[in-house]
Amino acid sequence: MLNIKTRVKNPVFWIQVAGAFLLTALGYNMMEPQDLTTWQGLFNVVVGVFKNPYLLALCLWNAWSAANDPNSAGLADTERALTYEAPVANAKQSGVNNL
Fold first, then answer.
1. Helices and strands in the chain: count of H runs, count of E runs
2. Do 32 and 26 touch, CB atoms closer than 8 A?
3. Which of 5, 7, 83, 89 has the fewest CB atoms inside 10 Å of its own CB, making it the most exposed?
4. Most distant pair of Cα atoms in the chain: their distance
5. What does the alpha-carbon distance between residue 85 and residue 46 come to, in Å, rounded to a whole number?
6. Is 36 inside a domain boundary?
C-alpha cells in the first residue's frame, strides 16, 4: 500500500506528476517547451495525451515514478511511511536517518 494521502500534500509530488505528463507528451510529439506559447497549445498537448493510448500509457508509467518510493523494497511503503500524516519537512529534525 502507498501513503497517497501524504504524497498529494507535497507540492514536489505534483511537480513530478505534471512533468511526467507534459515532458513525455512534448518528447513524443517532438516538441520543445518553447513550442507552447499559448494556453490553447498546452490544452491541445494535454488532450492529445488522452486521445493516444500509447502516449497515455507512457505518461502513466512515468507518473508512477512520482508515487513509488524507491527507498522501500517492492511496491509498498514501509510501515513507518504509512503512519505519516504529512510530508516530513526536515529529515534531520524528524529523526529520519539519511545515508
1. 6, 0
2. yes
3. 89
4. 47
5. 31
6. yes
Is residue 31 within 8 Å of 76, Cβ to Cβ? no
Q: Which cell numbers in the block locate residue 16?
A: 513530478
Q: What is the pLDDT of residues 41-69, one digit of tens each?
A: 999 999 999 999 999 999 999 888 888 87
**Domain residue limits at 74:** 4-83
Q: Report if residue 57 sits inside a domain.
A: yes
Q: Which residues contact 87 (CB under 8 A, 6 or more apart)?
A: 6, 7, 9, 10
How many C-beta atoms lie closer than 10 Å to residue 24's C-beta?
A: 19
Q: Is residue 99 situated within a structural domain? A: no
Distance CA 29, CA 16 (A): 20
Does the pTM surpass 0.85? The reply is no
Q: Choose among 25, 24, 1, 21: nearest CA to 77.
A: 1
Residue given cell 539519511 in the structure block = 98
CA distance 32 to 72: 35
**Overall number of domains in the chain:** 1
